[in-house]
Known about the structure:
The structure holds 2 protein chains of 2 kinds. Chain A is built from 3 helices and 8 strands; from the N terminus they run αββββααββββ. Chain A is of the alpha+beta class. In chain A, helix 1 (about 5-25) packs across helix 3. The longest helix of chain A is centred in the N-terminal third of the chain and has 19 residues, at about 5-25. Chain A is globular and about 50 Å long. In chain B, helix 2 runs parallel beside helix 3. The N and C termini of chain B lie close together (about 10 Å).
Amino acid sequence: xxxxxxxxxxxxxxxxxxxxxxxxxxxxxxxxxxxxxxxxxxxxxxxxxxxxxxxxxxxxxxxxxxxxxxxxxxxxxxxxxxxxxxxxxxxxxxxxxxxxxxxxxxxxxxxxxxxxxxxxxxxxxxxxxxxxxxxxxxxxxxxxxxxxxxxxxxxxxxxxxxxxxxxxx
Amino acid sequence: xxxxxxxxxxxxxxxxxxxxxxxxxxxxxxxxxxxxxxxxxxxxxxxxxxxxxxxxxxxxxxxxxxxxxxxxxxxxxxxxxxxxxxxxxxxxxxxxxxxxxxxxxxxxxxxxxxxxxxxxxxxxxxxxxxxx
Lengths: 169, 132
């Protein structure tokens, strides 16, 4: 397995995340320094998770790849982001705002897909899921490298994670 | 043609979040008569019974990806029936690929919007649909 194209793969997600937050959450995202994540413990309390897989065609060769997008929010950020998106005031995490993170992930992935197509990737999106609770565990696809990028916004900090590996079945 | 504030609109999306966002935006634009459905499969009978009751929906705003009946399947079903051939239908999708636009246009969509979008963009699309 390889992650040779990970950097190129990750760029469309950052741009898509900025676009989604600016248009639907009315806030700018300020990405911090990416680092490799070595454990599977979440940085936030609410994580939206969306898998992606497909084939990368580059220099005449085809390779399967597997990836996952995670956006992990502290409760306070999640509640404020949901409030901004839905134009309501929320004071706690509840069922009404549970799918906000999934919808954000969906939009980011959907946007990134167009640019990934230009880089030679076909991509099948899975259905987003939400994991909630302090320091929960995130199950990354086996053999993938995980990078984590802190993102600052007017609603607080959140963490965008991407994991990626080529040559997987 | 000036649009009526009480135009009967059906918003179809499996995600409650997105339904609420679309309803908020339609409200900002000035529309007041908005109903929701959570899938094409639940939206279709609502469209049919509204038609039978003599108070038909005048505008459908539908997501593409839904678990039971997709927006595309709903659109095709409606366009196959003479009653709904001209029913304005705005498709919303998260996937920004050009191929999707072509598929939706072939199926008879009135217009197409890619998430994320602002209320202003939604208004422009609605104006285009109704001022053709």
